[in-house]
Structures are given as C-alpha cells and as structure tokens.
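Because discrete structure vocabularies remain unfamiliar, we turn briefly to a single example record, giving the amino acid sequence and backbone structure tokens:
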Amino acid sequence: MAIFYSIINFRSYPFEDMEETASGDNCQNLCEKANEDVISELRDDILCYMLSFLPTKSAVATSILSTRWRNLWKSVTILDIYDDISGYHKNPFTYKERKMNFVNFMDRLFIHRNHPSILKFRLILARSYDFSCVNAWMSHLSRWISSSAIMGNVEELIFYINFPVRLPENLYCCEKLVTLKLHGHIRFDSLQSVCFPSLKALHLEHLRMLNNTAIKMLLSGSPALEELELEMEGRDSRRSVHICSLSLKRLIIGFFCIFVPYDQSYRKKLTIDTPNLEFLKLVDFASEELSMQQADSLLQADLCFGYQTGVFNVGIEEYADMVVQFYRQISGVRTLSLSNFNIRTLLGAAVSKFPCFGNLPTFRNLIHLEVRVCDDYVWILPDILHCSSNLEVFVLILDEDAYGWNWCAPHSVPQCLSSCLQVIEYKNFQGELGETEMLEYFLSNALVLKKMTITYLDDFKALEVDVLKRLSTCPKGSDACQIVLIPKHKRSFDVANMHRASFFSESLTY
C-alpha cells in the first residue's frame, strides 16, 4: 500500500507557481494541492491497471481506502494468488480454519467480480498440505479454474501446485491462451486431448508425473508454439523424451541427474525434432543418448552435458561418439557456448584416442564461441578453434577453483586466428604463468585482433601492472590490438552504470 500513499502525495505544478510570493494564503493553497488525492481522480481503467501489479489480496485490501476504491478490485483482469496455509497442517484446527478462509476468499473473489473475464491467473499453493484433503482441493481447483471468468478470454495461466492433482480437462482447450506455466505435482494420466491454437509459450517445470505421452500431446495440440521450457529430474520415470514441433523457435531443456544407478533395462533418450528452432539451451545429465534432427535454422546453442561415470549404462567411447555426432548436427550455429562438462568429454576422447575426436565438425557459420574450462583442459582449445574457421569473438571462462596450469603452444595455428578473430575475452584470470603464456600465444598469432579483455579476480589486483607490462611488450600479430584489464567487481559496476546512463539519456529526450 505504500506505493499508493507516496503517489497520492505527489503532484507536478507549473513553474509559475514557484514564483508566487510565499504568503500565508499561498502556502495554505500549496499544502492543500499537495494533499489532494490525485490517484482517486484517475479513470477506473487506469486504477485497475495499477492494482493489477499487486498480489490479489493486496488489491482487495485497497477497498478500505474510500468509497471510490471499494469496488475497483472487482474489475482487475489479473489475479495473482498465493496461499499462506503452508506449515499449519501440523495443527489440525489451525490448518482447517485457514484452509476454509482461503477457500471462502477464492469463492467470493469469483462471485463478486464485475469484469466478465480474466486475462492472467497465477496461483501458488503451498508445499505443506494435509494430503487426506487432496480430493477436496481438486474439487475447489476445478471450480475456480473452470469459472467462466477464467476460461473465457484468459491469455496467461501460471500454476505452482505442490500436491498431486489433476487439472480440469477444459483447461487444456483454451482458445485464447498464449502462455501456460505448470510446476509441481500436476498429474497428466487422464489427459485426453489438448487444443491450444494460440499458445506461444509453454513452461513445464519439475512435473514429476510428466511423461513422453503427455509431452507429445501438449506439443501436437499447440500448433503455434514458439517457446518451450522443460525441466525434469533424473528420478523421473521416463525412458525417452521426443520434442517434435514445426513451430518451435526457442527451446530450453534441463534434465538433472541425482547420481543414482539407472535401471539397467533401458537407456534414457532425448530426441529433438524442431526444424525451425533458432535457440537451444540444453542442460542434460540424465540422457544417455542425444539426437538433434533438422537443425538448419538453429542460430544459437548453449550446451552443458557430459558423461556420468557409474551412472550411465552406455560406455564412455559410445557416449563420446554420440556427442561428436550431436555437434555435427548443430554445426550451422552462429553462437555456441560449451560448458566444462562438454570440454571434459572431448578431452577424454582425445586422451583415449577415440576415432570420433578426429571427426569433429567444422562450424562453418560460427562467429561467437564461449567456452568454460578447468585449468587442465586448456590444451584442447586449439583443436576446438581449428573447427571454427570464421570465428570473430572468442570468450574463455576459467573455473574459479582452478589451481594449476599446463599450457603448451600447439605446432599449428588455427585459421581463425590469422584471418578473422577480432575479440578475445578471458574471464577469471588468476595470475598463473601458464595463463600469461596462453594469452601471449593468442596475441602473437591473432593477426586481425582488435581487443583483448582480461577480467581478473580481486585477489590478484597486485599483478595487474606486471601482467599488463608483459603482455604489452610481447610480440603481437596485430598492432591495432588493445589490451584491457578489468577487476571482476568493476565489470559488474560498469555494466550497472552503463544501464543507468542509458536510462537517463532516454529520459532526457522526453
């Protein structure tokens, strides 16, 4: 409510008011103007828009401000509801009372509304519940969600429900729904059909009862879907996941493993068949087989996956071969980010001299590459750069827990260094001799390099002058190269100041 009180006491006046004589009458007039309830003078639609940014309980509470505000909440088209029952299930009497209060509040909320439809509905139900009341909760949920106000023109639905529940069937047939986010223990075992003709974004997060059949049904019933976020844990009982969509442009997948031995009778598989996909973020420590079909439209990929010793059924050589094949399937990307887990798999293939390492693809369109490595992985970087003949920007991030270095300059120079690499960013510099020798290698062989930015940890600030002096005096392939050293905390500060300066410059144009 503080936002309303602060706005009510604010008002801009013409500059000529400031030139008036500070007489008693004028001071009194100014005080009266300053105390005017400017907010209540606004149109209803503006006030309802302001209330839509508040949690629904707070919006309802504004009805006590004055008669002007008494019924405004009834016309707000956004409901944001979080129950506060969690933790009271240990006391049956308190839990029952608070549960009934919450149910009565929700029922009255839908009964007394003036506006015929709701555009956005966000409902969070607490983690701790008396599970003997699940059937009753399902009845309440069905009544609220099936309300004509919800089902009529709703465009965004967000549900965080942390007890086993089936959502009403008619929820899966919302014609105007644009965004759907589901999280928790929602069940899909009775799902019969899906019809989301307008759905653009679908988020399925930590849904323990989600299976491949439900995923296929949700995707096939969403012909306009452009964004999918899917998060599952390794303990989820799924054998394979098949992401198939002609319309999908943005895909974020998080499959997390709890590091327990899998069922030996099957392997977990992930197949992505999205011919129009443009962005992929894949974090996968559960799938033993990965496959990417028709990735010609893919522009950006952010990858984090690797072999799990003692967990996977598949052998390391077979897994490494699969990873290299996956890289070949996405070789047309323009921007690529590889985690240290990806690099570790390639390193293992190189050390073991697996045939797949000699079949690394050429990333023909790649202009921006970001790689995160441990200190003992850096020697494989030239092999990766050899695969990026048109690279313009190379970002190298060192894990902060690195403790030793083993840099050895390769005999051959990657083509991108001599022809097109213009920017190198090295993050988390720790002052090791091997680090400096690696940077000297890049400076000496990068013939068109324009800028090298080195972000170092605060603990090594004393080395800034020595490192800068050494790098400035080493032989350079490009006379135009600028070397910049930045403390890690200063980088974030500069970014914040840049955004602030941009905000003020835009404000001054109005």
In short: The two ends are 29 Å apart (CA to CA). Residues 1-22, 490-510 have pLDDT under 50 and may be disordered. The first strand starts at residue 78 and ends at 82.
